[in-house]
Amino acid sequence: MTLDTDTLKQLLDTVSKFVDNRLRPLESRVGREDAIPDDVVEEMKEMGLFGLTIPEEFGGLGLNMGEEVAVARILGHTSPAFRSIFGTNVGIGSQALVIDGTAEQKQRYLPPMATGEIIGSFCLTEPDAGSDAASVKMAAKKEGDNYRLNGAKRFITNAPRADLFTVFARTDPDQAGARGVSAFVVHAGTDGISLGNPYHKMGQQGTYVSDVIFEDVVVPADQMVGGPGKENRGFATAMKVLDKGRLHISALSVGVAERLIEDSLQYAMERKQFGQPIAEFQLVQAMLAESQTEMYAARCMIEDAARRRDTGENVAALAASCKLFATEMVGRVADRAVQIHGGAGYVEEYGIERFYRDVRLFRIYEGTSEIQKTVIARDMIRRAGG
Ligand SMILES: Cc1cc2nc3c(=O)[nH]c(=O)nc-3n(C[C@H](O)[C@H](O)[C@H](O)COP(=O)(O)OP(=O)(O)OC[C@H]3O[C@@H](n4cnc5c(N)ncnc54)[C@H](O)[C@@H]3O)c2cc1C
Predict the structure, then answer these.
(1) Which residue(s) pair with 212 in the sheet?
(2) What backbone torsions phi and psi does residue 150 show, to the nearest 5 degrees?
(3) Which is nearest to 90 in space by CA: 245, 238, 207?
(4) Which protein residue has the closest C-alpha to ligand 1 atom 52?
(5) Which residues line ligand 1 (CB under 6 A)?
(6) Which of 89, 99, 239, 281 has the most CB atoms at less than 10 Å from its CB?
(7) 206-230 residues labelled b (16+ CB within 10 A) or e (exposed)
(8) What is the pTM of this model?
(9) Residue 27 has what pLDDT?
């Protein structure tokens, strides 16, 4: 869907007011209590946040990539944990079905995902398959009209809340790497599925992440994403989902950078040392200017890549460039924000140290910075005929 300018503006205004008036006052509490209040989650459902990218015919808002990154940027103006609760439904938890699901699978699962009635999670990473995601070992053995799944998935966002898992498993043990992998949608309550304890994380408190263990889990063949005939095509689905996710995380990084720049500027104009606001010192100005410039560069990159994706261009390498630059950028911006705040940047009360910890994850999940570099360079070599 492409929203008309007024409708998009209205949506962005509504999300912005929700972020400023409802979520920002709760940041410190969520950080301390490691939980998003239930009434906030209900309000998110009512606002349609769980269905931002789910097509309108299935009850979502059906945002295109340009619209999605605009919303993600605004969501970055508050703690990333708030976005995470509906983030999997908007991104990695629903998009395998949106992109490659059968009509029946879409009809069955997307409407309850759009309303937030069910939460979806994306199960790709394993204990021995992280950056090398194509090496997944989880076995999906064909038995008549079913598959039997055995293995473990690691660090799965929203797993403790999830109703539905998109699971990537090896259907052809004789094919090494990406070619032998298929995607399945699996109900979280299926016999044989258990969860590890939620991880204690460096940041993003309020987001739950745990391992998911599959022991002799029987999944009907028609739960294969795209239908029973689509065996061994799961890795391609995973990569399409991640291209989109990487642009979303990049836009979120820009939003957090904007927030930290705003907080830093305000602090620098109020805080006085040597008889004047610290914002008057050119060394502090340099930090503000560097953060502003890098944030703007990332924003332009992401808007360009999103626009190109909306015209049908393959943006895998551009999405990797955006994720690499934007997530590294927000790390530097957060570091400068701590520095500009001095001691106040290091203590909990000002919230800057929390963002500093929160943004560290962006450089790791949905592909580390090193993996983005390999994606970009491989694309360059391929284009040069190598
Ligand atoms: C909080 C959190 C939430 C997550 N949510 C999900 C989720 O919902 N679903 C999911 O499937 N996964 C999820 N993940 C997993 C995440 O995507 C992986 O942690 C990430 O891809 C890195 O894999 P790894 O941790 O195994 O690190 P490794 O792959 O072991 O990497 C370790 C280091 O080696 C580097 N490295 C590895 N290979 C190369 C290479 N070829 N060249 C150069 N350097 C290399 C990496 O860049 C990194 O610096 C989550 C992780 C965390 C921490």
Answers:
(1) 153, 195
(2) -140, 130
(3) 245
(4) 155
(5) 121-125, 130-131, 155-157, 201, 209, 361, 364-368, 370-371, 374
(6) 89
(7) bbbbbbbbbeebebebebbbbbeeb
(8) 0.97
(9) 97
